[in-house]
Amino acid sequence: MAHTELVLGIDIGGTNTTLGYIDRTGRCRAETTMLTLSDQPPASFFKRLHEEAEALWKTILGDFHLAGIGIGAPNGNYYRGTIETPPNLSWTFVDVRAEMARYWQAPLAITNDANAAAFGELLFGSGKGMRDFIVITLGTGLGSGVVVNGELVHGHSGFAGEIGHTIVQHGGRLCGCGLRGCLETYASATGLLITAKELLAASEEPSLLRAVPNSEMTSKSVYRAALEGDALAHRAFDITGTILGRKLADSVAHTSPEAIFLFGGLTSAGELIFEPTRKALEENLYPVFRGTVKLLPSGIPMGQTAIIGAAAMMWKQLDRSPAGFSAAWPSTSR
Amino acid sequence: MAHTELVLGIDIGGTNTTLGYIDRTGRCRAETTMLTLSDQPPASFFKRLHEEAEALWKTILGDFHLAGIGIGAPNGNYYRGTIETPPNLSWTFVDVRAEMARYWQAPLAITNDANAAAFGELLFGSGKGMRDFIVITLGTGLGSGVVVNGELVHGHSGFAGEIGHTIVQHGGRLCGCGLRGCLETYASATGLLITAKELLAASEEPSLLRAVPNSEMTSKSVYRAALEGDALAHRAFDITGTILGRKLADSVAHTSPEAIFLFGGLTSAGELIFEPTRKALEENLYPVFRGTVKLLPSGIPMGQTAIIGAAAMMWKQLDRSPAGFSAAWPSTSR
Q1: Disulfide check for A120: which of A93, A309, B79, B257 has CB 3.0–4.6 Å away?
Q2: Same-domain status, B159 and B272
Q3: Around Cβ B2, how many Cβ atoms within 10 Å?
């Protein structure tokens, strides 16, 4: 009897790392989460990762074969197989290929988390059948993945698709990347919270948020206040969506996508964020693009976006060249 | 003896239309220019175009075969073979395929002038061998063509690559497209002139430009004044280049090109425009992109950029599928 192939999808995050075995239909067969602990050296992380993956593998019943591994990580470089000066991780440079090669011989591919999400949308989500789309993740920051002609855009550097670091306001909010006024300092959960705090500081307007201690206020506080009809909280969402929609009109002028998918924590707010974003997007589109682009929620289950996406990248690679990176990474059965 | 294949490259402009026969090495064998006269119906334009092309064909000595036709035109749509609501032309909609089919049976491809220029750079210019680059034309307006993975990006709408209509300043200068604050209202020959006039209006600062009657002042006046060391004219170039460089940093964040090629009238000013553009570009790049992108002049002879580019588009199509659009456009020898 032929065995079923699985791909190991790994999402390395600032706090947690999630891993799971994903089949060819995009279904996650087993999943677990471990602490990333990037204050310890990369070598100990990859050792723990291997132990977790081995333990998880044993929980899957049936005849399976590991066909490949896909990793999404902050500043993951697709060409070099590295993580380079990642935000939110203490490591400065990790040769992921070399670290992984100590434990695995399966084909390996690496990219950043938002690009991984775009692969997921392309193979298993609402981007299936589309040739041109953009994926935007609205979490602590703003990540993005750009698909053109049915292929993810990696660009010359391997880091293409950093729409979160296009500039909204010269001399504006300081970004973690060192620039000022980056889109992600406004259009993200963090940006929403700062905008709400600025609105609170700028006037004496009554708001439910005035009862929340400053140190305890989060983007969720703003969300809850908006749900209860708080005008100031609503305005914070409007400003956030307007800034996002305007920049997305710039993105459309570049690659003219059929759809822009929004996902990540902030999109749980639904129309509170979608409505002002859609409005600003349409208003700022060059006329020939009007009515050609849809703003949609992601078609991938929320908690699994990154691991399914990382696995999808490997599935796409395996479909294209069944041997994968076979020169460097011979695909062997475990 | 085998005949030599030529492609007819056509550049439809607001005032003039240029046409030429281009060989497979990118060399123009014969070239001529006619008035566009878009106040007359499209049918009479295509009749005149055919007469000009026939007359020009007769001037080429030797055994030649027309392999295809490439057209660059404002708002030329690659997928539909149309010109739609073009700026600078009085026509509102032209079914170019249908018009051309009255006179020619050769394979035909259409795109806008800046995309045509990008095809030229890719096949015959400095973009040869590059997989990812962007071409920016700085003329009366700002056109652009985006190349990703060695292919021109047409996008879902067929109009991708309109970087001139990304927005620099909300509520800023009114653009011909109806939006306000588009990049091309600042970074173009027209934009440079407006900036110089604004600087003249804003102060009493001495300038050579004060001797030029307002109605006679052009972007060339600003250029000449800058060459003579005029501080205000220099500042107009600095402002123009800074605005352009900042937006190009946004473009890099999208597709991470290896190079950005600048061409068109304004680039004759050389370092006056390149230097501030390069500086603003580097300063506004997300750190991982620093040092990965070159700002270069085009590698195609200036006057022939558009016709060589339009022909290059067809050569690329013929190379990929020797039959061209063979279903609709059987390639026949003339």
Answers
A1: A309
A2: yes
A3: 6
